Amino acid sequence: MEFVATAAERDAPLVSLRDVRFAYGERPVLRGIDLSVHRGQVVAIMGGSGCGKTTLLRLIGGQLKASAGTVEVDGRDVGGLGRAELYAMRRRMGMLFQFGALFTDMSVFDNVAFPLREHTDLPPSMISDLVLMKLQAVGLRGAASLRPGELSGGMARRVALARAVALDPMLILYDEPFAGLDPISLGIIGQLIRRLNDALGASSVMVTHDVHESLEIVDYIYFVSEGRIVAQGTPGEIRASADPFVHQFVNAEADGPVPFHYPAPSIGSLLGAGAA
Amino acid sequence: MSGPFSAIVAGLRHVGKMTIDGVWRLGFVTRFLFAVLLASGQSLTRIHLTIRELYFSGVLSLLIITVSGLFVGLVLGLQGYDILQRYGSADAVGVMVALSLLRELGPVIAALLFASRAGSAITAEIGLMKTTEQLKAMDMMAVNPIARVVAPRFWGGVLSMPLLAALFSAMGVFGGWLITVVVIGVDDGAFWSQMQAAVEFDYDVLNGVIKSLVFGTVVSLIAVFEGYDCEPTAEGVSRAITRTVVTSALAILALDFVLTSFMFRG
Ligand SMILES: Nc1ncnc2c1ncn2[C@@H]1O[C@H](COP(=O)(O)OP(=O)(O)OP(=O)(O)O)[C@@H](O)[C@H]1O
Ligand SMILES: [Mg+2]
Fold this sequence. Notes:
The complex is a heterodimer of chains A (276) and B (266).
Chain A: H1 7-11, E1 15-24, E2 27-37, E3 42-46, H2 53-60, E4 68-73, E5 76-77, H3 83-90, E6 93-96, H4 108-119, H5 124-137, H6 153-164, E7 171-175, H7 183-200, E8 203-208, H8 211-217, E9 220-225, E10 228-233, H9 235-240, H10 244-250, H11 267-275
Parallel strand pairs in A: 3-8, 3-9, 6-7, 7-8
Antiparallel strand pairs in A: 1-2, 1-4, 4-5, 9-10
Chain B: H1 3-38, H2 41-45, H3 47-58, H4 62-84, H5 93-131, H6 134-140, H7 145-184, H8 188-198, H9 201-229, H10 234-263
Helix pairs in contact in B: 3-7, 4-5, 4-7, 5-7, 5-8, 5-9, 5-10, 7-9, 9-10
């Protein structure tokens, strides 16, 4: 049966990407990504803005299909799944969107209850208990009756987090959970991600560019640049790394292997053309 | 190439491109309609979803439909009386008011109002849900947004349109009665009895209902499609809303001509 996993299955990574390539139209974004997430781990994927982190999460969640390579979740090739199978898999995944993506026509309570109401036949009293437990876990039980418009950015993120874990998923995907948060909320979200992961026995993939917060809570880190993995390691290894890319990222230096500019013709040629 | 010739070529190219784009878009809409129909099971099994949308598109349009129907009826009564009394048949004003409303003005004006009141709201709502990634989030939660968001709004619109058109016609007849019988002094009995004798249910009423069903389907389809298809930005949503209103109006008027020419050829 599905529940009696052999030792080999337990040790196999929950998520594994092999030589994954992806392009939006003509523009390649990912040029051969290999990474794996083992069960129980929290893994961070880091890289500059626009390097393809959100794209990577969409590939894992099956919203995009890789143009080459394989994306496997729990031993199944995500790109090859039909709609029904994909939906069956997504019921065991939670995703925190970069901007929360709460349903604006529902209260906080109904937002968290949404996956439970859609996918279970639980009686209302049970749903209410579960929702309040999830909201309690993110510290927002008191906000249950508020509308998403009445929440601050950090609160909305926490509600979205509660909604993402409503069905006790095996895999949680976080897109920029720290963006735009003050240092205190940032720490709270970081701790929540770790606690929820361990309490649910889930695995988590977190896309971020916040190095210091991530180093505190994750088990493994991948650095992405120009569509490739350029460095990886445990937090200890990353802190000790002499790799110039890692060094630039950890110390937030403007100059280094990561370019500041979106690819463009040199500004000199443009200014020259304007003068001519 | 230069001069007027190249301008003509450019103009032709533009027309050609618009035609091809239009045909493509029509194809997309048709495929979208099939996707909506295929995903409509939930709108029936979880009927409260559809009833909620029926409330939003139907009940919230009640005021504008009632008031507009009344005014259109008042004007019809005035104009009808003015023309008919020249031929000494002012008593027939009830017939004229009722037939114009049931056959044409009820379905057409109610649909135009519905497109600008409810259609634009549906496009805006779905477009904003797309822009703020709510539809993607739903999809990631293994809930099909076409079944959960689009189909109930579509059916809500389809069902509320005939009811709104009927209400519009009823209010119009009431307005016509008010101005001709109560104010001008046309004979009350003649007003109603002539109307009763002249209006045929199978012909006038039924064809009017068919028209409003067709308009309701088309406007609802345009509204949900434009919302679902919009570019996920603020300008994208506002352009989609404009397109909903403009396309709906054109579609209603063109279809009205087609339907009328099949239904009422004397
Ligand atoms: N729908 C799309 N169509 C075309 N190009 C896209 C699309 N979405 C993203 N891109 C491009 O793909 C690249 C990667 O986008 P992605 O959203 O994955 O970046 P990201 O790493 O998540 O960035 P950020 O940290 O700013 O969120 C970007 O350069 C962007 O311009
Ligand atoms: Mg992103």
